[in-house]
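Researcher: Next entry in the queue.
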Amino acid sequence: MDEFDINEEVNGYIDAATLSILEHGRYWNGGITSTAAARLKKALLEEGFKVEIYEVAPDWEHVFFILNDQNSYESIEIIAEKRAKLNLEGKAYLPI
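Model: Structure for this entry, 96 residues:
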């Protein structure tokens, strides 16, 4: 993937990430590359969001989140476990 493709990928995620972080304090993305994830974090920081990024097991999704009382690394891991279980069951809705 070249520089242009990575920037296009990030641009495709920025609106969804911004809306999810504003509403839920976090944004999950299981399909973003690690390089694009780092760039998305940088873009979100430039937008004024003090986000952390965590690639969390068991499905190794990237989650961008504002670290606070509701969003700790431990709470993110619990949500990731629930998401993985529901995903295996074929559920369409995964908790944010």
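Model: The chain is about 55% helix and 15% strand.
Researcher: Noted, moving on.
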